[in-house]
């Protein structure tokens, strides 16, 4: 990855926030952000992603750890000395100022001259496609427009880092899709390093260069959207990003290579490299496979035998609920009209296989 | 059935309004009386009592005093109440919850008790029948209201906008002056108006600490009613209602009352 190999612009180092609850809200979190990178903090609510963002913004003092920006620990610096742009879910515009005054606010505090300020405000408004809106009040704008003003206000000061806190959550579905591309587009053009907090995997997958998946205050995995989706590092990531089936299996290390069995039936042969390091003979493991990777064949074929419970047409795919011999349920996605789809009649017996490369194996 | 219910509720609301406004209506009518005593309905009509009131030095002196005190009280209520409200909403310090509840204590205590306490403190301090004394006493009444209203307005503002300003480079004082305060205008106007009206109408505490040298309008009116009952009393009542109403209207027109109270 070219981005990951460039020197860190911002380094989050063992960042911890503990307000005295059962567990720290953010627990020894460490990752690097490269210059110009668009990085997503993804996780369910309460995973500590917003707390992390607030610590980077300086609105919350970490219990311990460092935030290195430009080679310097900024933890003790107040927010007004960090030179960053923050965009809230609520837009947080200044209602008593015009759009142009909103955008010019940070420049005014930096004592930027009148002419230069006007030029930069105009440029920022152009970047968010709001030319000619300078004299309006925030209340006269739609939600999407207000959000774009908030972005213009944040990028006009050329911040070290742009922090986006669930910026799309207040927009309706159609606008959200539009803004997704628009934000990414603005970021690419300006090249501002961006930290984007979201609970929406779709947003994270489509917008980010890299995604940091958080759960329970800890970093589960950081990687490109493709890495996160195809090679989830933990069962949590596998279940949180996209849909995943988990099949309990027992490992046997025979002469013919490693073998996984579920209720006495063999799963597709696992790759030795993929097995958890400490898994020995007889280890209880969980095999993870995406619904679209499951292949159906006639019951006399190779693979796990299963019965089709339900088959639902949902447009682009047919969703099939399958039940293994032991009662374990799986979901498969089939292409409508395919031969497999023909087999997926409710009550029918089928055999299930998938490619070794489509399977991830975790300790159960 | 719903029709019947709606009839009942309309009748009920009308009745409540009658009970509330009937005395005021009667006073308004009597203020235009030509009689020399309070009677309803009056036997003749005239504006002479309005003239008498405006020519009465005791009342006019009282009005002047009350107006001066009310304006100072309103200004001080804001000056003292705003930092207090800010601290109670935005800052975290030990004992915050306790102080929050204690702030409204003067509203729960009987005014008589407060008045007695104030008298006992003010007499040795030489504050009885002085402007500072009356202002201080009124502040005891108005500050809890001011703080409560400003507290509500402040918490309704949330912290996002201030935090956004902070990350853009604004220091706390700049945030307060340029962002928080302008957004707080409705609350500031409402709390000032309430303090103004409360102080102008205040009587219980004032009764304890006014003297022949310094008398407020409500006290002058109260003393007058003790001795005489002529339509002058009604005229004064109408004028005081009109003043309060005018203040309320100004608030309503400038920011809207519902908004001022943070709904």
Topology record:
The complex is a heterodimer of chains A (364) and B (263).
Chain A: H1 2-5, E1 8-17, E2 26-34, E3 38-42, H2 49-57, E4 64-69, E5 72-73, E6 84-87, H3 99-109, H4 114-127, H5 143-155, E7 161-165, H6 173-190, E8 194-198, H7 201-207, E9 210-215, E10 218-223, H8 225-230, H9 235-240, E11 245-254, E12 257-262, E13 265-266, E14 284-289, E15 295-297, E16 304-313, E17 318-324, E18 329-334, H10 339-343, E19 349-353, E20 359-363
Parallel strand pairs in A: 3-8, 3-9, 6-7, 7-8
Antiparallel strand pairs in A: 1-2, 1-4, 4-5, 9-10, 11-12, 11-14, 12-13, 14-20, 15-19, 16-17, 16-19, 17-18
Helix pairs in contact in A: 3-4, 3-5, 4-5
Chain B: H1 2-31, H2 48-55, H3 57-90, H4 96-103, H5 105-108, H6 111-125, H7 131-157, H8 160-167, H9 172-183, H10 185-201, H11 204-209, H12 217-227, H13 232-254, H14 257-260
Helix pairs in contact in B: 1-13, 3-7, 3-10, 3-12, 7-10, 8-9, 10-13
Key attributes of the depicted protein:
heterodimer; A: 364 residues; alpha+beta; Rossmann fold; OB fold (Dihydrolipoamide Acetyltransferase, E2P); 2 domains; 6-stranded mixed sheet; 5-stranded antiparallel sheet; 10 helices; elongated; B: 263 residues; MetI-like fold; 14 helices; 79% helix; 0% strand; globular
Provide a concise account of the structure shown.
The complex is a heterodimer of chains A (364) and B (263). With 364 residues, chain A is an alpha+beta fold.
Describe this structure in words.
The complex is a heterodimer of chains A (about 375) and B (about 260). In chain A, about 25% of the residues lie in helices and about 30% in strands. In chain A, strand 12 (about 255-260) and strand 13 (about 265) form a beta hairpin. In chain A, helix 3 (about 100-110) crosses helix 4, helix 3 runs parallel beside helix 5 (about 145-155) and helix 4 (about 115-125) packs across helix 5 (about 145-155). In chain A, strands 6-7-8-3-9-10 form a six-stranded mixed beta sheet, sandwiched between helices. In chain A, strands 13-12-11-14-20 form a five-stranded antiparallel beta sheet. In chain A, strands 15-19-16-17-18 form a five-stranded antiparallel beta sheet. Chain A has helices spanning about 1-5, 50-55, 100-110, 115-125, 145-155, 175-190, 200-205, 225-230, 235-240, 340-345; strands at about 10-15, 25-35, 40, 65-70, 70-75, 85, 160-165, 195-200, 210-215, 220-225, 245-255, 255-260, 265, 285-290, 295, 305-315, 320-325, 330-335, 350-355, 360-364. Chain A has two domains: about 1-240, P-loop containing nucleotide triphosphate hydrolases (Rossmann fold, 3-Layer(aba) Sandwich); about 245-364, Beta Barrel (OB fold (Dihydrolipoamide Acetyltransferase, E2P)), CATH 2.40.50.140. Chain B has about 260 residues and is an all-alpha fold. Chain B has one domain (about 55-260): MetI-like fold (Orthogonal Bundle), CATH 1.10.3720.10. Chain B is about 80% helix and about 0% strand. Chain B is built from 14 helices and no strands. In chain B, helix 1 (about 1-30) packs across helix 13 (about 230-255) and helix 3 (about 55-90) runs parallel beside helix 7 (about 130-155). Chain B is globular and about 70 Å long. The chains are: A alpha+beta (about 375), B mainly alpha (about 260). The interface of A and B includes residues 94 and 109 of A.
